[in-house]
Amino acid sequence: LVTAGLLALSSWGLRVWQARRSGAAAMRRRSRRHVQLAALSRAELEHPLCVVPLRRFARLGRLVCFEDLRNAGMHEVYDSLDAVTRRLTDYHLIFLSHQWLAHGEPDPDRLQYKVMQGAAVAVAEANGWNPAKVLIWVDYCCVPQRHARLLDLAIESLPHYASLAHAMIIVAPDATHRDTRRPCDVESYKNRMWCRAEQFCYSLPNGGNNIFLAKRAPAAGSHTC
């Protein structure tokens, strides 16, 4: 009976491991498909560029879901590359790249938001940009979350979003993923395919210029907008 129980437990463990492996493989295949589609997409936005002005972002207090920001009229929306290009003649776009710290929400303890807020203000100040003319892009706030097809279209536009930015901030504070309990830090960030894809798309027109790593929030009161 003991042997049979061990065999059954072993078989169950194998099935769980195989299921997890299959799910991870499916996710990798889906990610590769999005990258391939984006690379082959027309030289136009598949989904509008939605951004949040820096001063508005700094007052949110947390990362807010795209749909909630949309319904509150908090986005600036640009439907074409021509419209974005015109806006960015005197505005600056900061692209925030990060990994999610939970399955259902990106930043359950607001750790990353605090780092993003301070780092974005610091980067604007370091470049001499008027904070009233700085725009923020970050996935959870600027990409549809509740409509699968719109999400796909936004992902296909990701190379445009990243390549249009004037600065990229990699946000990677030391943290623990709420669901997997695995460490999330700079090393785990580097292993995320989407994070690497964002860096690649930004670097194509910009090289290594204006890429910043933010691991902790600045001291209170050291940066304001």
What does this structure look like?
The protein starts with a helix and ends in an 11-residue tail after the last strand. It is an alpha/beta fold and 225 residues long. A hairpin with a 6-residue loop joins strand 6 and strand 7. It is globular, with a radius of gyration of 20 Å. Helix content is 50%, strand content 15%. Strands 2-1-4-3-5-8 form a 6-stranded mixed β-sheet, with helices on both faces. It has 10 helices and 8 strands.
Please write the string of helix (H) and strand (E) elements: HEHHEHEHEHHHEEEHHE
Strands across the major sheet, in which order?
2-1-4-3-5-8
**Can you give the mean pLDDT?**
86
Mind summarizing the main beta sheet? 6 strands, mixed
Q: Which blocks of ≥5 consecutive residues have pLDDT under 50?
A: 1-14, 36-41
Q: How would you describe the shape?
A: globular
List the helices and strands and how they pair.
Elements: H1 2-40, E1 49-53, H2 54-57, H3 66-71, E2 76-78, H4 81-87, E3 92-98, H5 111-127, E4 134-138, H6 139-142, H7 148-156, H8 158-164, E5 167-171, E6 175-176, E7 183-184, H9 186-190, H10 193-206, E8 211-214
Parallel strand pairs: 3-4, 3-5, 5-8
Antiparallel strand pairs: 1-2, 1-4, 6-7
Helix pairs in contact: 8-10
